[in-house]
Design brief:
The protein is an all-alpha fold. It has two helices and no strands.
Length: 81
């Protein structure tokens, strides 16, 4: 006779006794933990991808910040005029 290996899990998920309620609560907690871990890993990957894409796109485009100058050693009594 064929025995369904998922029958025990099915009965535990859909029965109304107290132990199956605890099993369902534990299952929900574990699924939530997996979702949080997935979101953290995905956000780390997305951040690295976006930074790399920004650097790649910035190489092809000329902007005013590419021509900025840094001047040091100006006298203290220097004015804008």
């Amino acid at each position: 006779m064929f025995r369904n290996p998922y029958n025990a899990t099915f009965n535990k998920l859909f029965s109304a006794d107290k132990n199956s309620n605890l099993f369902r609560a534990d299952l929900i907690v574990y699924i939530n933990i997996l979702g949080v871990v997935y979101m953290l890993l995905h956000s780390i990957y997305l951040r690295k991808f976006l930074v790399g894409m920004s650097i790649q796109l910035d190489k092809d485009e000329v902007s005013p910040s590419d021509f900025a100058l840094l001047v040091r050693g100006l006298p203290a009594d220097c004015t804008k005029e």
